């Protein structure tokens, strides 16, 4: 990972080289070193529960590891649109809504 020190990185490379020898793979078998978060889909397919940072799950559940912004919920009153002719025009309101319509 990104917090591994040089000694840990060398040990990981040595383990990979030993694995290649134990499996009798060709001497020219390449070892890929990927940055944390840069794993390819081909690599991730072997891990059933792999979760990427900020990956959504279903409809909008996101795994956030940093901080979350606080959003103030403001109540919306649609009748206030009638008080401002400019606002009513902007939102294509036909009239002031005081009449009756039979459908």
Automatic annotation (TrEMBL):
Localization per record: Cell projection, Podosome; Cytoplasm, Cytoskeleton
Main subcellular location of this protein, as a coarse class: other
Taxonomy, superkingdom: Eukaryota
Domain Gelsolin-like: 1-44
GO biological process: actin filament severing; actin polymerization or depolymerization; barbed-end actin filament capping; cell projection assembly; central nervous system development
Gene3D superfamilies given in the database record: Severin (3.40.20.10)
GO cellular component, one term: cytoplasm
Keywords attached to this entry: Actin capping, Actin-binding, Calcium, Cell junction, Cell projection, Cytoplasm, Cytoskeleton, Repeat
UniProt-recorded Gene Ontology molecular function terms: actin filament binding; phosphatidylinositol-4,5-bisphosphate binding
PANTHER family found in the cross-reference section: SCINDERIN, VILLIN
Family, per entry: Belongs to the villin/gelsolin family.
Protein name, UniProt field: Scinderin
Organism expressing this protein natively: Molothrus ater (Brown-headed cowbird)
Upper lineage: Eukaryota, Metazoa, Chordata, Craniata, Vertebrata
